[in-house]
Write a structure and sequence with these properties.
Blueprint: E1 13-15, E2 29-35, E3 40-45, E4 50-57, E5 59-62, E6 65-68, E7 72-75, E8 81-85, E9 89-96, E10 104-105
Antiparallel strand pairs: 1-2, 2-9, 3-8, 3-10, 4-7, 4-9, 5-6, 5-8
Length: 109
């Protein structure tokens, strides 16, 4: 049995092809992420991966749309979004497939 703690993982990511990780794979990436009210992630997209975000607790805004506890948001490759924690928030994020360096910042081009 392998045991770790989410606080030992970088940004909450615990499955994927990076270090540290609890389970190394290129198939997927999984994270449990915690945000404080006002935390902001810049507008970005993925060229290959599909990203699924589950709002476990709290309220967020993505593309100026508010999502609450229980919402599941699927961002397909090429779709752009930003992220604002309206309240303290916990999410689970899954990226399929796990692709290193597949996050592109939207520069408004």
């Amino acid at each position: 049995m392998k045991v770790s703690h989410i606080n030992e993982m970088k940004g909450g990511w615990f499955i994927g092809n990076f270090e540290p990780t609890l389970y190394k794979t290129n198939d997927t990436e999984v994270a449990v992420k915690e945000y404080k009210t006002g935390d902001y992630g810049v507008r970005h997209y993925h060229k290959i991966a599909t990203e699924l975000t589950v709002i476990v607790r709290g309220t967020v805004k993505m593309n100026d749309v508010e999502y609450n506890e229980g919402s599941i948001i699927i961002m397909e490759p090429g779709e752009k979004t930003d992220f604002l924690a309206v309240t303290d928030t916990i999410t689970v994020v899954v990226k399929l497939p796990g692709v290193n360096n597949d996050k592109y910042i939207d520069k408004g081009e």
